[in-house]
Every structure is written in C-alpha cells, then in structure tokens.
Amino acid sequence: MFLPQRIDLYAEALTASERNLAASLRQRYPEGLLDPASVMAAAAGTSAPTVVRFFAKLGYPSMAEVRREARTQLTAALPNPSQRSNFTIGGERSLSECVDDTVLHDLHNVQATFQQLDMAAFQAMVQAICQCQGRIYVVAGENSSPVAMYLTTHLNICRSGVADLGSRTPFPVDRLLWVAPEDVLIAYSIRRYAQDTLQAARYFRECGATVLGISDSMAAPLVRHAQHSLLVSTHNASPFDSYTATFALCNALVSAVAQQLKDDVSQSLQKRDSLWAKMQAQAGAAAGPSPRRSARSKGK
After folding, report:
1. CATH number at residue 232
2. 278 lies in a domain?
3. Residue ranges of the HTH rpiR-type domain (predicted)?
4. 117: DSSP letter
C-alpha cells in the first residue's frame, strides 16, 4: 500500500495539521518523500516531529521506508541507470544510510518476489527442467551473466546436458545450431530487455522447444515467448538493478530441482569429489617433490 492509499485509509484519524501535511505530500508525490522531514514540514506549515508522527500513524516503520517507497515509485518506469541516478544517489546520504537503504530495498525485493510467486508456474518450470529429454540452455544479458552462470553451474550438478548460451555481443549463433524440440531454454531478462535474449527465446519457440522465463514484469517482451514465467523484484537504493531477489528465486529453483533429482544429485556429487581428488593427486605428481623434500633427500 502506497502513501495515497494509506492517507485515504487513515483519513478520519488525522489531525488538522496532519491533513494539511497529507494534502501537501499528495501534490508532491512521490518525489516529495525524498525531502528531509524539516523540508516536508516547512512546505505544509507544520513541524518535523509532526511529519515523523504522521508517517508512523500511517504504518511506516521508519523514514527510511518512506524514502524506499519514493525511490521505487520514481524509478519503476525509468529503464536507464543514468535516469535513475538523480532519484537514488542525488541527495546526501551517510555510508550507514547507504547500507540501511540497501538492506531495506532487498528485504522488500525478496518479500515481494516470493509473495507474488506463481507456484503453478514454479512447479511447471521445475518439472520441465527435471524431465527434459534434450539439453537445457541458459541465457541472460551481459549485465545479468552472473545469473546464467549460477544456474548453469548448479543445474549441471543436478543433471547432465546443461549449457550456458553465453552473453557475448554479437550473439554466438553457432550455439543455436542444434536446438531441438526436446530442449529447454531458461531465459533471464529485466528492464532494458537485451535483444539477444529475446531473439534466443523466439528462436527456441520456433524450434518447438520449451522456454522458461524469469523477468521483472508480466509486460516484459520475454513473457510473450515463454510457456512459463516467474517474476522478480529488482528495485534498489542505487541506480543499478538489485539481483538479490533474483538469486534467491534461482536458489529456490535449484533447490527444488535437486530435491526432485536427489538420487542423481547424490551420485554426481560423489563423482565430482572423486574427480577432484584424482586431479589433485595428478597435479601433485606432475609438480614433482617439493624443493625442501628434495634437499632433505640429497642430504641423506
């Protein structure tokens, strides 16, 4: 619930000074919420303590939460970090406030992502990954490449045939040569919506393959090409998108796949540990005895 709705809900409980403040804030919403309490008070002809009590009465736990709402509302429609910078880092903040604002935004991002989670779509995506008879490809834009890397790394331990399509520009078209109807594409795309990711999703659908989308809006172009989609919240206290909720959702996805394929995962982990030990031993043998040990041998 945002400020206008909160004001309507608590209208009868507001004092005369608080009603004047509410009218002033409505006129300057949401950018006015970024002002210090003293500035809000001066604009409404009241005091800073009245401003603080007003927001507490409306259910805001802190002024930091008020600023978070303002930044979220102001930056939601701005795809470019340079456009968002004035509303996120334009004012003065201490280092402590930067930390607090970041934690507040990411807590809300994670909460919003899982509150809106479509469990039917989540289950369908887990099933598609587990039951895929072909290969599983993962793709994300260049700035989102860590997301693709995370999913590829962990799903590859859960099952075979997982590959990262890459985030290079121009797009590595050769990796699409053998796409087949039994394949699955997991595509991640958030605002600015990289064209390479959308082209890959479109091509997989043309091939009859399954496309699983993760995006920040049901209006995102990727959603039109995906059989199943999940949404993430990416608001931040800086000009850049936050990936905290994205990794939390991906973690849940990997956890669910691992649970469904627990026997395969157990075997692959044991095999990985065995391979690791073998390669470590081979690397040690190739390096030969240490200089200290060789010196001791010569002294005998």
Report:
1. 3.40.50.10490
2. no
3. 1-77
4. -
